[in-house]
Amino acid sequence: MPIAVALDGPAGAGKSTIAKRAAKALDFIYVDTGALYRTIGLAASRKGVEPVPSPEVEQLLKEITVDLTFNEKGEQIVLLNGEDVSGLIRTPEASMTASKISAVPAVREFLLELQRSMARTHNVIMDGRDIGTVVLPDAQVKIFLTAAPEARAGRRYKELIEKGMDVKYEDILKDVIERDSNDANRAIAPLKPAADSILVDTTELDFEQSVDKIITVIKENI
What we know:
By secondary structure, the chain is of the alpha/beta class. It has 9 helices and 8 strands.
């Protein structure tokens, strides 16, 4: 039976980078569910569709395909109607749109089966906001990864600056706090730890320490 690890937590906690490294070390498949929501957000932006519950969003979902694949290095590639949009969905604007559109019930239903099907056929580490509570409630290991907002904003700022983007720390911190509020207070699948999840706070940990901690937790619980 495949092993599923659910890794939830707020924006900027390092879920994707940590999960990616841990999955490689454990020879699991890494599934970045946030990328799926970002991709639908990108599709909505391109069509001028507001990321709120509406007939327009439901029609958009009928017109698009979203797929996950992996390159020869094992890196996840996200496809929107066959187009590789992996790089286009990593901007602060894409993050905010993803946060809003992820609260749309039709969008969550659209992606639910895609996510569950991967867990049925592979050993996975799947990250997101509601993996342990909604998507994979029977996951063998559930982890809630968090860090202080200031630490998360600082990491995001450094990442974007290194990519050559013109951003301000204060703006990123504001976005982090706003997204935390959006994710925690939405009516559908709000961000919260599963009752049986293991809390890991990386505020005082560097990247390598965070990866080691997650791998240790997984090994101790499978």
